[in-house]
Amino acid sequence: MRWSAIAIEVVAVGWSVIPDAVDGELGWATLTSLVLPLAIVVLLLTPSAARWFDR
Questions:
Q1: Structural contact between residues 34 and 16, judged by C-beta atoms closer than 8 angstroms
Q2: What is the pTM of this model?
Q3: Contact assessment for residue 16 and residue 30, using Cβ atoms and an 8 Å cutoff
Q4: Number of C-alpha atoms within 13 angstroms, CB side, residue 40?
Q5: What is the separation of C-alpha 21 from the centre of its chain, rounded to a whole number of angstroms?
Q6: Whole-angstrom Cα distance, residue 11 to residue 52?
Q7: How far apart are the first and last CA of the chain?
Q8: Exposed, middle or buried by CB within 10 Å (0-12, 13-18, 19+), for 37?
Q9: Fewer CB in 10 Å around end: N or C, the chain?
Q10: CA distance 31 to 41
Q11: Which of 8, 6, 31 is nearest to 20 (CA)?
């Protein structure tokens, strides 16, 4: 379940970054909007999240 959540977040980040990068519109506004999804991925990779999902 945890790895599924991580995969969904990574796909969501890629889904929003790749079109902007291809169109040449990748800027600070795009990168700052990715802070929350990347923070979720980092938090899901912590050992405490692993223990919570292993319950």
A1: yes
A2: 0.62
A3: yes
A4: 16
A5: 16
A6: 23
A7: 11
A8: middle
A9: C
A10: 15
A11: 31
User: With contact defined as beta carbons under 8 Å apart, do 3 and 45 qualify?
Assistant: no
Backbone angles phi, psi at 54, to 5 degrees: -85, -5
Residue 21 is encoded by which pair of tokens? 């990068």
Task: List, for residues 1-55, the tens digit of each pLDDT value.
Answer: 778 888 888 888 888 888 877 888 777 877 787 888 888 888 888 888 888 877 7
Tokens of 41: 């991925």
